[in-house]
Amino acid sequence: MASTTVPADRSASSTIDPAEAAHFGTLAADWWNPKGSSAMLHRLNPPRLAYLRQRIDAHWDGDPDGFTPLAGKTALDMGCGAGLLAEPLARLGASVTGVDAAPENIGAARAHAEAGGLAIEYLHGGVEAVAGRTFDLVTSMEVVEHVVDPEAFVTGLVDLLAEDGLLVLSTPNRTALSRLAMITIGEGTGAVPKGTHDWSKFLTPDELTELVEKAGLKVIDIRGLHFSPGAGFALSDDTRLDYFLTACR
């Protein structure tokens, strides 16, 4: 398990966008409803978990048939919402901390974890909420495009990573396809709450790679996320819509 204290991080000031936090806070009560406003996040979770499991097993030479590959490890989910990813990470054996900018989400996350008998530490704030600590696994899914300073945010995440740790991010790519799918169709039809995305803040894989490498990590994998109306989301070599990025020291 990673040590719990390190020198103060290089990005102690908050990268939270108050307007973004308020937007996602309004969704808190409906977050765990698979047919509600967060339905797309529920559909995203299976390929997210599949990708994470692949990278976890590869990084720590785990048994792909084991049930708790994160046993004895610490995990941080930054921008955890109401816990859709934090809870599966806990079930994979990790000691999990979830951090979110919206206090409403933290309240919903704590209540849901308690009802499910899961001991997860939930904190309100941004990267500064856990400054000085380190984690074996750091995840931040569909978050970097919502912060005020992506470079400071990524630097803050890297500062929270243990020496042998694994960083996994996901974010939409800034392409014509993502604009069409996520904003014109997704928000236009109500499948995604209106105002969720600002296409100009999406990062390309090259841009995110540059931020991660500038902060001191090595990018070891990039994988796309494809969507089709019939099959839903699936891992893909096509990064035009959305993608995962994995890095380590």
Automatic annotation (TrEMBL):
It comes from the Bacteria. Its EC number is 2.1.1.222, 2.1.1.64. One of its GO terms (biological process) is methylation. The keyword Transferase applies. Coiled coil: none annotated. The keyword Disulfide bond does not apply. Keywords: Methyltransferase, S-adenosyl-L-methionine, Transferase, Ubiquinone, Ubiquinone biosynthesis. InterPro entries: SAM-dependent_MTases_sf, UbiG_MeTrfase. GO terms for molecular function: 2-polyprenyl-6-hydroxyphenol methylase activity; 3-demethylubiquinol 3-O-methyltransferase activity; polyprenyldihydroxybenzoate methyltransferase activity. Pfam families: Methyltransf_23. NCBIfam families: UbiG. This is 2-polyprenyl-6-hydroxyphenyl methylase/3-demethylubiquinone-9 3-methyltransferase. It comes from Stakelama sediminis.
